[in-house]
Amino acid sequence: MDEGEVTERGAHHVQSLERGLAVIKAFNADAAELTLSDVARATGLTRAAARRFLLTLVDLGYVRTDGKYFSLTARVLELGYSYLSSLSLPEVAQPHLERLSAEVHESSSVSVLELPDIVYVARVAVSRIMTVSINVGTRFPAHATSMGHVLLAGLDDADLRDYLAGARLDKLTAHTKSRPDELSAELVRVHKQGYAMVDQELEEGLRSIAAPIHDRRGRVVAAVNLSTHASRTTRESVERELLPPLLAAARAIETDLASAPPSKARHG
Description:
Keywords: DNA-binding, Transcription, Transcription regulation. This is IclR family pca regulon transcriptional regulator. With 268 residues, this protein is α+β, with helices and mostly antiparallel strands. It has helices at residues 15-25, 36-43, 47-60, 77-85, 89-104, 146-153, 157-166, 180-193, 235-259; strands at 34-35, 63-65, 69-72, 107-114, 117-124, 139-141, 196-199, 206-214, 220-229. The protein has two domains: 15-78, Arc Repressor Mutant, subunit A; 86-264, GAF domain (Beta-Lactamase), CATH 3.30.450.40. The strands form two sheets. The chain has a six-stranded antiparallel beta sheet with strand order 6-5-4-9-8-7, with helices on both faces. Strands 1-3-2 form a three-stranded antiparallel beta sheet. Strand 4 and strand 5 (117-124) form a beta hairpin. Helix 6 crosses helix 8 (180-193). Residues 1-6 and 263-268 have low confidence and may be disordered.
């Protein structure tokens, strides 16, 4: 964000808040510690402005510094906790994931869509099958994940067109669907069949299958999946052995969500 950049914003827009959030978002798993210059470069702010925001965040307890490097503190989790704790979805889904994983002996997860990514909101890990650790709050590109395909297939036509027109479809493996037309065709198939299978598109050796979770009005608000090693399963065995219990778990989560009070049935 260039400080001189002019964008159309409403009269309510607080630019300093936008810039402060941009500073927090500059940190990630690959950039856990940043210098002042790193933050200025990542956000497009001047060094002087980046310094003011960083030191303010230090004062508030969200950032720590040794004088040269800056890093986030655990306090930033509070920013997302209010959202996650207001949802009934994680607590409703968790016991169903535990039963599902115990039945099929595979890791299970629930995620929601936050374009261009999916965000994990509940998980039961049977074994670690990816090179990175997955926890609540982990994000992956929607276009390369089974839950992402289910959630994208649930978008209305206009939102899906906007996504496909502007998304960066990085080719993460040789199998990733990185062309808009290819992904669009797959999403049509997912919508018709009611589930998605992704075969080593996010990471080599990872095969996963996902089903949608609908709200009271029939909208797709989340997705549930099972992940397995491609070396010990085939696409056919996943559909034969994992899909039926996965669909049953999705329906059970929907039933519990529908029975929750309206004030507790919000998913974001």
